[in-house]
Design brief:
There is one protein chain. The protein has 324 residues and is an alpha+beta fold. 29% of the residues lie in helices and 32% in strands. The protein has seven helices and 17 strands. The strands form four sheets. Strands 4, 5, 6, 7, 8, 9, 10 and 11 form an eight-stranded antiparallel sheet that branches. A hairpin with a 3-residue loop joins β2 and β3. The longest helix is centred in the last third of the chain and has 42 residues.
Length: 324
């Protein structure tokens, strides 16, 4: 296990160094055309407003089925295999700011606490202030009969990171095999990864009876080449036919909550643009009422009685917030 612990410490150091990058500064000011368009409006009542640039970024990739010495896996485009050993498999993102891995051991005592096992394995990357949520029953991967899932958060070099870890358990007569699948990234990217990276972690599967040092137990689950061929076919089917379905199901259950949380956290609200097929515009919560003209100029006011169309040669339409 020393190789895996050393590798994870290296991966974690690279990951956390990238975590400390600063967010882009907000754009300010208006163009000369915008200023001229707004100048004709009543002074002291309306104020130029710029839409807020959304920082959300869906990062769902296509997948390639891979096979290592002991594990099979689904590799996202651009990602690479950072470790392929008997006890662990690690996949690393192109920018080294996210990773997923499986690590496990055989011969553990029966009823060994899952949260303790998760904590011990994650401590190999030397996190600071490691926090685990309460365990939630989850679906185990192939070769295991029980699973518990944990939300995790921690700091490294003062940079926050988040992720999802599942502990898989296969009891035997007098011992058990335990493994964790983990999806981790810096906190600024987690919203983009949360919809799909845990599903990639769940595709890692032991295909060699010697994995985790317990040939007999794992071999019972993958005891011949036909079993692996069937598993590989299921992975291909999942990648080719079900990836969009997995993404859509996760998005439907999380999009509304994520949008409401993001708007509240960023102090913004979303409005449909009546001049651009109701495309969403994010505006700061500075004013209670907003108006837009055909040139895309936006003004805000807290006075519900004023109308920018009064005395103006341009058409202004009132913006109404999107109800979620």
């Amino acid at each position: 296990m020393s190789r895996f612990a050393t590798l994870l410490r290296i991966v974690s150091a690279v990951l956390m160094t990238a975590c400390s990058s600063q967010s882009d500064t907000a754009q300010s000011g208006t163009s000369a055309a915008d200023s001229a368009s707004v100048a004709a409006l009543p002074a002291g009542t309306f104020f130029p407003v710029k839409p807020v640039t959304s920082s959300s970024n869906r990062m769902e990739p296509s997948l390639q089925i891979g096979q290592g010495r002991f594990f099979s896996f689904a590799l996202p485009d651009g990602w690479r295999v950072a470790e392929d050993g008997q006890f662990a498999l690690t996949l690393l993102a192109p920018d080294q700011r996210a990773l997923t891995f499986m690590v496990g051991n055989a011969g553990l005592p029966v009823n060994y606490p899952p949260d303790r096992f998760v904590y011990e394995k994650l401590m190999a990357i030397r996190p600071e202030q490691l926090q685990l949520s309460r365990p939630v029953a989850a679906k185990p991967i192939a070769g295991f009969s029980q699973a518990w899932q944990f939300e995790v958060s921690y700091y490294a070099q003062s940079a926050p990171c988040r992720g999802l870890v599942t502990c898989h358990i296969q009891p035997a007569y007098d011992s058990s095999v335990m493994a964790i699948t983990a999806a981790l990234s810096d906190a600024t990217q987690w919203d983009g990864y949360a919809n799909w990276l845990p599903a990639v972690a769940e595709q890692i599967s032991a295909t060699n009876g010697a994995a985790f040092g317990m040939r007999g137990i794992m071999q019972q689950n993958l005891n011949n080449s036909m079993a692996f061929a069937e598993a590989a076919q299921r992975y291909r089917d999942w990648s080719n036919r079900n990836w969009q379905q997995v993404t859509d199901e996760r998005n439907r259950s999380t999009d509304r909550r994520n949008e409401e949380f993001r708007e509240a956290l960023g102090g913004v609200q979303t409005y449909p643009d009546p001049y651009n097929n109701n495309q969403p515009i994010e505006l700061p919560a500075t004013y209670q009422h907003y108006w837009i003209n055909q040139q895309g100029n936006i003004v805000g006011t807290n006075d519900p009685t004023v109308d920018p169309n009064t005395g103006s040669t341009q058409e202004w339409r009132s913006l109404k917030p999107i109800k979620r």
